[in-house]
Amino acid sequence: METTTPAYLEALKKPEAYPDSPKKIKLVETQGSYLFHADNQLYKIKKTGNEFASLAVKEVFCREECQLLLRYNPEWNAEVVNLNRMDSGYRLDATEGEIEEYALKMEHLSDRRFLSSLMKKKNAEIADLSLTAAHLASVHAESGMSVREGETGKAERFQALCDDMLYQMKRYFDPSITQPIIDMIRHPLDKFIHSKSNIFMKRLRKGRVVQGHGALLPEHIHIQGETVRLLSPHEVYKKYSVLDAAHDVATLMVQLIVGGEPDLADHFLLKYKESSKDRDLDSILPAYQTYCALKYGVLTCEKKVALQDESLGTVALEYFNLATRFSRTISKG
Asked: What does the alpha-carbon distance between residue 135 and residue 231 come to, in Å, rounded to a whole number?
């Protein structure tokens, strides 16, 4: 990730760097991006790092994210604009000068209407999850991949994802803690994947392997009135997004449960199944729920190390214990 502060950061805090001279500008820095809130517009610039090592690579993935964003949010305005360096300084959406960066430009949405904010204040309602489920199902219905395009949804690819997460667990905790959890998870997962590989193939042929969101977290879901926006789709590694539709469903369910909203998770599942008419979803969902709980346990461990926050170890164990619980559901099935 970037080790030096880009020169354009200070420039983009000033109205003259924008085509419409906004009155209010706010910079928010995330692990992978710089976000500039400029009145009712948001500009997202990817940081230089392992995933985005050059300007050309950043352009490719900025455009890919824009395309996915429009797929998950029909009838919404989003576009890629240049950040140019000129003799007079930096300017967005300019035609003169040299391109310094690419920015994803989109509507700035109210922070208080993100599902994560609603959950934090205990204001998330059943209606919010009903709208989210219906919206997700409608996008999935238009996002089915062909058998050739959906290779990552096959049983052997899913097995590799699960094996990787189980391996990563060992890096962060003493074996006396993780090995019993790994043993309880691995057996039912392996048995299901090896004996029920036909389920993966059947769903691939039926179009249930989709170009998914890949990171359907509460902080990426915005609900305003009857309108749902799904932000920050996973644009880099398609093995994490071109998967069974169960992956997006399981991701949000896991987050709702860990966030103390299991009833909302159950309601979301019910409404998704009604909207998608996916009668076979339950046949594969527990396996994906297990994988998603493992994945976010590992990601929480990585965050714990990066932030040196020991309290996140407890959260990670909560994810891993949830994975164990879901794996029992696999064995019952």
From this structure: 13
3-state secondary structure the chain: CCCCCCCHHHHCCCHHHCCCCCCCEEEEECCCEEEEEECCEEEEEECCCCCCCCHHHHHHHHHHHHHHHHHHCCCCCEEEEEEEEECCEEEECCCCCEEEEEEEEEECCCHHHEHHHHHHCCCCCHHHHHHHHHHHHHHHHCCECCCCCCHHHCHHHHHHHHHHHHHHHCCCCCHHHHHHHHHHHHHHHHHHHHHCHHHHHHHHHCCCEEECCCCCCHHHEEEECCEEEECCCCCCCHHHCEEECHHHHHHHHHHHHHCCCHHHHHHHHHHHHHHHCCCCHHHHHHHHHHHHHHHHHHHHHHHHHHHCCCHHHHHHHHHHHHHHHHHHHHHHC
Pair of tokens at residue 321: 């214990």
Q: 175-210, pLDDT tens digit by residue?
A: 777 788 888 999 999 999 999 999 999 999 999 999
Note the pLDDT of residue 50.
61
**Dist CA 29 CA 97 (whole Å):** 26
User: Whole-angstrom Cα distance, residue 54 to residue 47?
Assistant: 10
Q: Contact, 280 vs 202, CB < 8 A?
A: yes
pTM of the model: 0.91
Q: Which two tokens stand for residue 235?
A: 């644009």
Judge whether 209 and 242 are in contact, CB under 8 Å.
yes
Angle between helices 126-141 and 262-276 (to 10 degrees): 40
**Residue 323, token pair as written in the block:** 């994975």
Tens of pLDDT along 81-91?
A: 999 999 889 99
Amino acid identity at 71: R
Buried b (16+ CB within 10 A) or exposed e, 242-274: bbbbbbbbbbbbbbbbbbebeebbebbbebbbe
> Which pLDDT does position 5 carry in this prediction?
83
